[in-house]
């Protein structure tokens, strides 16, 4: 990378850093000059002026600290020229000591900035995964309740509707699968007149992508719609904000919000039966809409799948892609573990035990390639130590259930990190390595 790419600011944050560095450094020089015009660098007293570059280095790291030192150097040269001072009087020891102090402070700052970024990335990923797991748990509970009640007269079940959503294909523009989603929520939540609108950077599209009933173009100035965009949460006429007093033609506004907080669409409901406007139905509508948003987000990764990975679950591949970015940018490692065995009824049961023995954040994919059945387990935020603990736990489960270890039952194991780009190549390589190793009894 060229030097100028490091020097030129990128984004508002870096412009602010450069502004603070220049402002504090020049301000310190001017203040020192006004107090001690004959010795602006305080070489004959305690060098208070050097607190400015030290503070900058502690806040922004070594690079901006060195920039501040260079500003001091330029300020001294300007002062020496103005005062006709010989350059031989340059305070070498002062600059040497000050520069070393600034560099040590900057290095200390850089270590803690890096650690803070790692912690923030870990927290963001776990919060995103927790949000997805919470939605899935609610959907599971809801599906179980609906099955228990034996909903007579419904043309299809909630589970079938979710399967339809999972088959949504990516689209270049608009919201893919909008009609499928709307048909699902109409069946499950008893909507009469409603429309789905795309949202781009906080701006709602006036024309609906899909609608039911005599739905008219949405009014983005409507209080209910505006409050939904601002809060990012489901809003209806009985919410705590007492929206019943505001003039709105809508009953409910539902945001299609992804797990990482991105708002991609809003569904506005004009008419629905009175008995349907209750808490459980609103929760169902909100979760189904969020599930649809996550499904659309997941389809963005579909074009990156190779021909041999077309049956790979999108959630599994998306998690690999996210964790690869964390490993590349923040050196937070994750592991991918593969198990392979001949495709028999017994091996299917054994690999099912492995797939069920996962933590909350883990992702699994069971597949068949030729005569081999494989189970791939993605262990997020796991290093070599966590991998060893996971394999020990799998052995313990097998000894308890089957009376022997996986290797003694013909199950082969292989683990890799996510250090290779593209991530689809890493997945392909692991599958090929497992099947080739299974063919070779000497390995």
Automatic annotation (TrEMBL):
Pfam families according to UniProt: GAF_3, PelD_GGDEF
SUPFAM superfamilies: GAF domain-like
Protein name per UniProt: Extracellular matrix protein PelD
Keywords associated with the record: Membrane, Transmembrane, Transmembrane helix
Record bears the keyword Isomerase: no
Listed transmembrane segments: 15-36, 48-73, 93-113
Ranges where the GAF domain occurs: 184-293
InterPro entries: GAF, GAF-like_dom_sf, PelD_GGDEF, PelD_GGDEF_sf
Organism of derivation: Sulfuriferula multivorans
Domain PelD GGDEF, chain residue ranges per copy: 311-431
């Amino acid at each position: 990378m060229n030097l100028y790419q490091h020097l030129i600011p990128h984004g508002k944050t870096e412009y602010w850093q450069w502004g603070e560095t220049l402002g504090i450094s020049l301000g310190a020089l001017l203040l020192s000059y006004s107090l001690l015009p004959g010795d602006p660098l305080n070489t004959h007293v305690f060098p208070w002026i050097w607190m400015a570059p030290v503070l900058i280095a502690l806040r922004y790291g070594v690079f901006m600290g060195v920039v501040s030192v260079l500003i001091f150097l330029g300020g001294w040269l300007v002062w020496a020229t103005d005062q006709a001072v010989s350059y031989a009087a340059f305070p070498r020891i002062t600059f040497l000591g000050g520069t070393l102090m600034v560099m040590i402070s900057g290095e200390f700052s850089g270590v803690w900035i890096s650690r803070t970024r790692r912690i923030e990335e870990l927290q963001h990923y776990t919060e995103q995964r927790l949000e997805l797991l919470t939605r899935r748990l609610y959907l599971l509970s809801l599906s179980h309740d609906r099955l228990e009640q034996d909903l007579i007269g419904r043309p299809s079940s909630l589970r079938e509707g979710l399967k339809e959503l999972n088959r949504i294909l990516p689209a270049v523009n608009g919201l893919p699968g909008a009609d499928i989603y709307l048909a699902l929520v109409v069946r499950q939540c008893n909507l009469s007149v409603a429309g789905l609108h795309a949202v781009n950077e906080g701006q709602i599209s006036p024309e609906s992508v899909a609608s039911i009933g005599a739905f008219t173009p949405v009014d983005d100035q409507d209080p209910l719609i505006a409050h939904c965009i601002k809060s990012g949460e489901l809003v209806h006429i009985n919410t705590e904000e007492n929206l019943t007093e505001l003039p709105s033609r809508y009953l409910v506004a539902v945001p299609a919000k992804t797990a990482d907080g991105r708002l991609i669409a809003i569904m506005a409901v004009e008419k629905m039966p009175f008995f349907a406007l209750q808490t459980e139905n609103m929760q169902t509508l909100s979760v189904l809409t969020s599930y649809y948003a996550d499904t659309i987000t997941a389809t963005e990764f579909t074009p990156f799948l190779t021909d041999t990975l077309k049956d790979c679950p999108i959630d599994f591949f998306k998690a690999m892609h996210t964790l690869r970015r964390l490993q590349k940018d923040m050196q937070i490692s994750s592991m991918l573990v593969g198990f392979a065995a001949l495709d028999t009824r017994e091996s299917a049961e054994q690999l099912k035990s492995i797939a069920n023995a996962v933590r909350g954040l883990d992702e699994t994919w069971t597949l068949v390639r030729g005569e081999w059945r494989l189970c791939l387990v993605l262990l997020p935020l796991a290093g070599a130590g966590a991998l060893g603990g996971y394999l020990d736990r799998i052995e313990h489960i097998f000894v308890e259930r089957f009376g022997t270890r996986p290797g003694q039952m013909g199950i082969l194991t292989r683990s890799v990190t996510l250090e290779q780009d593209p991530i689809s190549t890493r997945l392909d390589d692991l599958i090929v390595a497992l099947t080739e190793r299974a063919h070779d009894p000497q390995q």
